[in-house]
Amino acid sequence: xxxKIKILISPCKDCPxxxxxxxxxxxxxxxxxxxxxxQVSEPLRALINGAPLEDARHLTxxxxxxxxxxxxxxxxxxxxxxxxxxxxxxxxLKLKSAEKKLTEIKSSMLALGKEATAAMLSxxxxxxxxTFQKLLVMVDAERSYHRNVVAILEKLHSEMILExxxxxxxxxxxxxxxxxxxxxxxxxxxxxxxxxxxEEDNGDNYFIAKVIHPFDAQADGExxxxxxxxxxxxxxxxxxxxxxxxxxxxxxxxxxxVEKIDRIPTSKLSGEDSTP
Length: 276
Description:
This protein has 2 domains: 2-173; 179-274, SH3 Domains (SH3 type barrels), CATH 2.30.30. It has 7 helices and 5 strands, in the order H-H-H-H-H-H-E-E-E-E-E-H. It has helices spanning 2-9, 16-48, 51-82, 89-174, 185-194, 196-202, 266-274, and strands at residues 207-211, 230-236, 241-246, 249-254, 258-261. A 5-stranded antiparallel β-sheet has the order 4-3-2-1-5. Keywords: SH3 domain.
């Protein structure tokens, strides 16, 4: 993951950031689809084909057959009752037998109906509870997936902004002036000594600055600085560099490395005067 993030924020014309999001999004999507398949779809499919539902269906079919048998027996009783004018012992016996069988079928049908109804209600309740739980799992998976995508986009946005700021800062502080505008330290010192009149004419533009960050000269014409040094700044360029003199040497340095002050502390002046 760390390696992919590094690739993500590195400048590349092929836009690796889009590739990174695509890969990570695909992995998150596969995770979500796996949850939907193994934790939602398959349990619901097993519930539909499970034994409780099959048992409830079997009881319902038995109840339907018994109801049909009850209707047939009821019709038989009615038919025999219509022949009640025949008061022979055999007819009476057959009528009582038919009525008894009708009563037994009715009793069994009522009991089986209650059992089938209870079984179907139990299965329905179980299905509703299971379906609700699986839908909750599905919603949680969707939320997790989208939260992950949002987190990736937020992190990507922050890293891109930070990278842009760092690049802008680096360009402002690291691009020195052109060589033709940078006087060498020796030439600058000699020039200052030989042309004192010019310095007096331009002295109004000079100011004192205190070094707040050390700077090591890397090229001719640059001036090394140490923290707490004091520099006479004679020129400030628009590209982020300044030219000045410190400890008898002149050169260019980053403008952001010094801070303008009104005057040099008395203790600093005393220390410089006592230096042989």
